[in-house]
Amino acid sequence: MSALQRVLGDGIRAVGFELRGYFRVPDVVFFTFLFPVLLLGIFGAAFSAAGDVGAGPDGTGGISMAAYSLPGLIAAGPFLAGVQNIAIDIARERSEGWLGRLGATPLSPVSYFIGKAGVTIVTVLAQLALLLAFAVLVFGVELPSEPELWARFAGLFALGTATMTLLGVALSALPRSSRSATAVVLPVVLVLQFISGVFLQFTMLPEWLQRIAEIFPLKWLAQGMRSVFLPEHFAAAELGGGWAIGTVVLMLGIWLLIGLVLSRLTFRWQRRS
């Protein structure tokens, strides 16, 4: 067996191990798997009386709050499963000595990362299917019918998931213990969701806060999802007056490279004293 085959085989086994561990922790499952679905239910029900979003002067062209909230919550899936879940999980495993024991085995770091990436992919795909089904069946949200929009979605969703996974690995280097992991990661995750168009309508934010959000990848992934699931006239509400798909891909690609470099430079089986 070649070295590559051994690394891939160990990685596939690591995916199964990670999935079993993931679904045995109810609070992790809730906050990374069911939380966006719960939020869609709250937004769709609580703001249904406010009328449609984005309607023209004649009252046409608007969509329900559930439909408007859907793209941001779809973008939150890879963000929660990648950045939040992986960062806290790796920090905890390092603090508790689990990574140190793994480092003493023939397991390659690449195989370990494959395991983390695998559970992220499975989680976000299952979450996406549940979120779309919930939106359609409960709130009657109409999904795109154009094949090119679904092709755009697939590319952006895959790029976003890869980016968030690598950033989660990089962020895991910051917490110094399992106790501090949640305190370090959660504020970052919550603030970025608030300013990136996940919890609030992005256009409700002051322009200076929108500019800050533009630095980070979640805003661009959410904008890409809006370009897929919202009517075309909603593009006028973006800062540049359009969806700017090329910029979305560029920014996600830049953060992908940043996450790759930082992961390579900062990952250790054991924290240095």
Question: Could you give the order of the helices and strands?
Answer: HHHHHHHHHH
Strand content: under 5%
Determine the number of helices (DSSP H or I, runs of at least 4 residues): 10
Average pLDDT metric:
85
Residue windows where pLDDT falls under 50 for at least 5 positions: none
| Structural class determined from secondary elements | mainly alpha
Helix content: over 70%
Number of domains: 1
Q: Classify the oligomer.
A: single chain
Number of strands: 0
**Sheet of most strands:** none
Shape: elongated
Q: Gyration radius, to the nearest Å? A: 19 Å
CA(first)-CA(last) distance: 37 Å
Give a structural overview.
There is one protein chain. With 273 residues, the protein is mainly alpha-helical. It has one domain (3-49, 61-266). The protein contains 10 helices and no strands. The protein has helices at 3-22, 26-46, 65-95, 98-103, 109-139, 147-171, 178-195, 207-213, 217-229, 245-266. α2 (26-46) runs antiparallel to α3 (65-95) and α5 crosses α6. It is elongated and about 65 Å long.
